[in-house]
Amino acid sequence: MPDTVDLGQSTMGQAPLGPAPRHVAIIMDGNGRWAKMRGKPRTFGHSAGVEALRRTVEAAGDLEIPYVTVFGFSTENWRRPKDEVAALLELLRVYVGRDLDRLVRDGVRVRIIGARAGLAPDILGIIERAEMRTAHNARLHLTIAFNYGAQDEIARAVRRVAEDVATGRLAPEAVTAEAFASRLDTAGLPNLDVLVRTSGERRLSNFMLWQAAYAELVFVDTLWPDFDRGALEAAIADFRRRDRRYGGVARVE
Ligand code: IPE
Ligand code: IPE
Ligand code: MG
Q1: Residues within 5 Å of ion ligand 3 by Cβ?
Q2: Distance separating alpha carbons of residues 182 and 180, to the nearest angstrom
Q3: Which domains does the chain have, with CATH numbers?
Q4: DSSP for 12-60, written as a single string
Q5: How far is the CA of 28 from the centre of ligand 1 (A)?
Q6: What is the distance between the alpha carbons of residues 196 and 26, in angstroms, rounded to a whole number?
Q7: What is the pLDDT of residues 172-204, one digit of tens each?
Q8: Is 209 helix (H, G, I), strand (E, B) or coil?
Q9: Which of 101, 169, 197, 232 has a CA 20 to 30 Å removed from the CA of 223?
Q10: pTM score
Q11: Atom 3 of ligand 1 has which residue's CA nearest to it?
């Protein structure tokens, strides 16, 4: 270590902060436990979770985070009791359907990723309308993973690659990481910078297995319905203290 290292930022023994994240993803977890703690049904927690999503999207816009992706419903969540599944599906109607005018006004571009097969026609209608009406927005790209599972997404992308190779549109030697990524549901989105999971669980639960390759993982104990601007700011501050090396060497030696 040299005696003096002047990086142009006062570090006081701490590493300088890295840049703000471009793409923040959140596994919104803990609605059920939040409701249980209050002696309420799990669906009560999901309704409170929508409020947290509204708060978080608004805060992300103010903080000028250009890309936010949230996990709303997984391909495995169909395993839950029928009434809970119905309540979770209803949330898309509530958030993307009823909030649409405000999202349009706030400059939010909405994109829904995940499997479309198996979704009811009215839900598909809500998705198409939201994507169409917000297509010209660019302030905040909000991606909602709905009926989403990363393994399913990857399998569907492999199918597209196979079709393109079979029809001669793609040469086998042109199957690169980029060519593959352009066939994922997230085509065109930057990879994740930070992946936040609430509620103390420390697993990915089949979320963004490809796109999280170099994401910084931030696990917080806060239950999703309690998440707010302060919690988002804290997660970003945690991220900015990380030293992202991408297989290279440290930022500060
Ligand atoms: C997350 O909260 C919401 C979804 C899965 C859609 P949970 O419903 O998983 O809540 P917990 O994990 O049971 O507390
Ligand atoms: C992941 O949470 C799915 C969403 C947040 C939508 P889960 O609560 O379903 O995950 P597991 O079952 O605890 O892994
Ligand atoms: Mg959960």
Answers
A1: 29
A2: 5
A3: 23-148+192-240 (3.40.1180.10)
A4: TTSPPP-PPPSEEEEE---HHHHHHHTT--HHHHHHHHHHHHHHHHHHH
A5: 7
A6: 5
A7: 999 999 999 999 999 999 999 999 999 999 999
A8: coil
A9: 101
A10: 0.94
A11: 29
